[in-house]
Amino acid sequence: MNLVVFDIDGTLTDTKMVDLDCYLRALRDEFRIEATEKTAIEDDLVTDTGFARTTFMDAHGVNLSGSDIERLKARFMLYLEGAIKLDPRLIQEIRGAAHLLALLDVNPRWEVAVATGCWARSAIYKLQHSGLYNPNTPMATCDDAPRRSLIVSLAVRRALEDYKVERFDRIVSVGDRPWDVRVATMLNYPFIGIDSDGILASVGASTVVRDYSEPHAFMDLLESVSVPGN
Question: Which CATH superfamily is domain 2-15+92-224 in?
Answer without folding.
Answer: HAD superfamily/HAD-like (3.40.50.1000)
